[in-house]
Specification:
The structure is a homodimer of 587-residue chains. Helix content of chain A is 63%, strand content 6%. With 587 residues, the first copy, chain A, is mostly helical. Chain A folds into two domains: 416 residues, no CATH class; 134 residues, Transcription Regulator spoIIAA (2-Layer Sandwich), CATH 3.30.750.24. In chain A, the strands form two sheets. A six-stranded mixed β-sheet of chain A has the order 4-3-5-6-7-8. A two-stranded antiparallel ribbon of chain A has the order 1-2. In chain A, helix 21 links the parallel strand 5 and strand 6. The first copy, chain A, is elongated and about 100 Å long. Chains A, B: It comes from Alkalimarinus alittae. Chains A, B: Keywords: Membrane, Transmembrane, Transmembrane helix.
């Protein structure tokens, strides 16, 4: 038993057994492709988080090893991720007054630890389901707003001007104020980088396909565009001595691997406000990181008829984040775009992550000196193109067409994220989603029914030509009954009683009732009493088994003036044939 | 049109037309019974609110006239109410440091105005439905806890000691500390009052029934017990000169009617905290007042096959509270117990309220001098017996048997109301109810179906002997699909795909799906894609009309790999007979 549990908690033990040469080759190739993608991305996302570039590299080492041991998705590419990086930047800017101070960097490390702790808690206490309360419109609105925030944060780098980046509108206004200081060479280099990053993958792919018929080779080589852009930009900088021309370069990056260490608490002044601010940011980062990583992992698992255990994923992401903290880096998550590339490159097991970590370690050891001359604007161009895909205009259009209320949740989440920052946007969006759900289900669809002539079917009298009887009101409610709609039901029944002065029976058709809570039961008692006072009987038809079991825990059926019928037709037949309550009822 | 609207807004204009001698006699008799009940109650509930006794009388004049003009329920008895009085006491104690100062009394008046304003807003903006979010367990827990708080607040009066009354536990501990100071004469008078108030109604009723056969006269005369208790207690005080013996008396009450005035803002130091504290208390008082008044009004209306318009009731209660403020009194609501007496005494129209107001005005003008010697302990006894009926032990037992989760909401509301006060209790209870609902509906009941041999019926394979086909997975979900359960559904389908390696078709039976939101639609897209990636087709069966209409607003049906079937049986027949997707599907 314990070994089964262990291999469930450490999936590595399971897949390592059947590891062979084929999977090794597949994983290694995928890891190579991902390493080439991850080098520029890790630097760019560290910059996005407002942190020194080497922290991006550090976030791409140990966390990947942790995921390889504990994670269960082969293609999932854990590491720096655009959304969690901008959330890190926002959290640090809100907590610490000055960027890149020692407390600022220490704060990022502690954020990674806290994020890891929350994710571990999700995994251990099986709280992963809580993320279900973040609805699709809220996620879409939030991610799209984040894309706008990320893009706007890079406009300054693109123009070669320094802007205030603590909130979206400050970025916009400070960019507008400084736009006349635009540094021409930087801007030109930026535009060239964008053009190259946009066009090169397609051109490379087309050229390679002329030489070989392998789509795999063509696709893989097209992924080298970002690293080619880096090499090209470094060459241009060196060739035209752009460093002394005022183009901002990445500068010195410490060579070698990070020293593992527990977080350094000293630089931070730990008052309650700091704690609260960092912890609430870490909670949101862990939720968003978990939601996006899980949906990516599930999508790839489905393609192989596998299943992902959400709690195990939370656990492995938790350990990955704690490893990031131990490495002195910032919060990590899975990047959907990198994971998709990894899947297409043939990644089979989480060993891909471990091999990628080896590639990144080699880069740390040998590549860093050559990164000195990498212009920051090229990384900004990389970020800009990467976030384009995050702004999900199609999902917005689809949601607008499908349901205006859901769209309003999307739109308000987006606007509040832009206006008040990520935390406000997300929390308001979730509350709005819940409010809309409650509002919608508090006004369920109800129908007065009549009999379709010569059949046993009963349909809405407003939509069909049906027979009715003045002494019988047939009523169907298309919703589970719970506190938010219990009084609505009571009210509608009171209305029916008032508008059908000759009625002696009300048959409530319960075929659409999937659940019933104590408030709804109380309303049924009230309805029964109100009908009794008005000289009418209450009957129930087509009650589902689990609902009947539940109602039987109370004495409602003994209190009820009428009968319980298996079908609405039986109720109708019984009550029209015999003025007195019949005996064929299933009571 | 405008006259119809006006009579809808001022129900008085409607019922006054058909007012005749019969209704006049019925209403007058009921008003007389209610006046006799209301005189002691109004004094007692003013004491409960921590305010001078005459304010209880003032709260029983103009607000009743306002309700007579705008309200639509004949028997509803608006005026001082135990629950809103204790809420007023709690609100004032939390906002102002010292009781019975001028700012304390001014605070009560402003609370009445604010409560009126909230209720008016409920009526005008049709927000009455918001009170539906207070579930039955929360109301029960809240009211029962309030009964305990009210009872404990009167223990000091009963023992003749002064206790701190700002929170339940302070009352308990301070009572325990001062219990040795118990004033013997006061306590004895209190016990006698309780015994009389408990026993006299039954004895009077039995005696009268020996003299006459009219239950109406017997019941009406038994309602005089409280006023007889008052007269008896006053006599005892005068006879034994208990005033100089240390028994606390009501003392001087100003004679005459209240002067109408706008609220006096001067005594209060209006900082933001004061505003927030009073406004949030007023909001809760208006919600609780509205919920209890409305449920009483609806119960009586149902007995006469009438219907109460909740928004109109909110409006009339709003104006009643503003009238209470204009009279210098505190928030009012309908008392369920008084309203029940009024109904039984034959009240037909809201004129009953107006006639009661006349009776109370006469009391203000001529009765007040005689109230000087009324001992406070008799009023305490009256309150204690009145709140006994509020502690709803039966509802607790019923909820416990019916559903433990609902009971936990009830229990936590009760405990938090006792521990942290009414606002905390109510707000936490509502949030807990919503959380429980979301949790419950995020794990809906699902079933894998098989065909009942030789029928067209499909049932849960775990409960019935049914036929299955290894190539077809039949799946039913018993819930409306929305964000909280959308990923649950995805996850279950992924599980099914992994556990049915031979399956080629998944038929989702949608007969229990009453609603679908954008998140659920997105999950359907994902499920369709996941199944496609796994080489399976997704089919839907028995989709309800409104759901189909909604899905058709998206391109899901074009994307879906399988077909749409009118019945699950048709799907099964089609997919088992023809390996390729058939053509009889209703697409």
């Amino acid at each position: 038993m314990s070994s089964i549990n262990l291999s469930k908690r450490v999936p590595f033990l399971k897949w390592a057994k059947s590891y062979n040469r084929t999977t090794f080759v597949a994983d290694s190739v995928a890891a190579m492709v991902i390493t080439i993608m991850l080098i520029p991305q890790s630097l760019a996302y560290a910059m996005l988080a407002g942190l020194p570039p080497q922290l991006g590299l550090y976030a791409s080492l140990l966390p990947l090893v942790a995921y390889a041991l504990l994670g269960s998705s082969g293609p999932l590419s854990v590491g720096p991720f655009a959304i969690t990086s901008i959330m890190t930047a926002t959290a640090l800017a809100a907590t610490f007054p000055e960027a890149l101070t020692s407390e600022y960097v220490a704060g990022a490390v502690i954020l990674a630890f806290m994020t890891g702790a929350f994710l571990l808690a999700f995994g251990i206490f099986r709280l992963g389901f809580l993320t279900n309360f973040i609805s699709f419109p809220v996620v879409t609105g939030f991610i799209s707003a984040s894309a706008i925030v990320i893009a706007s944060s890079q406009v300054g780098n693109l123009l070669g001007i320094s802007t205030n980046t603590s909130s979206f509108f400050e970025v916009i206004t400070s960019t507008a104020q400084h736009i006349h200081q635009t540094h021409f060479e930087t801007f030109l280099l930026g535009l060239c980088s964008i053009a190259f990053l946009y066009g090169a993958p397609k051109i490379i792919r087309a050229l390679v396909l002329k030489l070989t018929s392998s789509y795999f080779i063509a696709d893989s080589l097209s992924r080298t565009a970002p690293i080619l852009a880096m090499l090209g930009a470094i060459s241009v900088v060196l060739m035209f001595d752009l460093e002394h021309n005022g183009v901002v370069l990445l500068g010195d990056i410490p060579q070698g691997l990070p020293a593992l260490a527990l977080p350094n608490w000293q630089p931070i002044n730990w008052d309650f406000k700091t704690w609260k601010s960092l912890a609430s940011s870490a909670l949101l980062i862990s939720i968003i990181g978990f939601v996006s990583s899980l949906s990516a992992a599930q999508a790839f698992a489905a393609k192989q008829r596998q299943r992902i255990n959400p709690n195990q994923e939370a656990l492995s992401l938790g350990v990955a984040n704690i490893s990031a903290g131990l490495s002195g880096a910032f919060p990590v998550a899975a990047s959907l775009s990198r994971s998709a590339v990894s899947f297409n490159a043939g990644a089979k097991t989480p060993a891909t992550s471990a091999f990628t970590a080896i590639g990144m370690a080699v880069s740390c050891l040998f590549l860093t000196p050559y990164l000195y001359s990498l212009p920051v604007v090229t990384l900004a161009a990389l970020i800009l193109l990467a976030v384009l895909s995050l702004f999900d205009f199609n999902a917005m259009k689809r949601t607008w067409a499908f349901n205006r209320q859901d769209f309003s949740a999307l739109f308000i989440t987006m606007i509040l994220t832009l206006l008040n920052g990520v935390e406000w946007g997300l929390v308001s969006g979730v509350m709005l989603s819940i409010g809309l759900h409650l509002y919608r289900s508090s006004h369920p669809h109800v129908a007065i029914l009549g009999r379709v002539p010569a059949t046993e079917h009963f349909r809405n009298i407003d939509r069909h030509d049906v027979m009715t009887d003045p002494e019988i009101v047939s009523f169907r409610v298309d919703a589970s009954l719970y506190f938010a709609n219990a009084r609505f039901l009571e009210d509608r029944v009171n209305e029916l009683v008032a508008s059908h002065p000759k009625a002696k029976h009300l048959i409530l058709m319960c075929s659409a009732i999937n659940d019933i809570d104590a408030s709804a039961l109380e309303s049924l008692y009230d309805i029964n009493q109100h009908l009794k006072d008005a000289g009418m009987q209450l009957h129930l038809s087509e009650v589902k088994g689990p609902i009947l079991d539940r109602i039987k825990r109370s004495d409602f059926l003994e209190e009820m003036t009428g009968n319980l019928y298996l079908s609405h037709y039986l109720a109708w037949k019984d009550l029209t044939n015999q003025p007195m309550a019949g005996s064929i009822a299933d009571r």
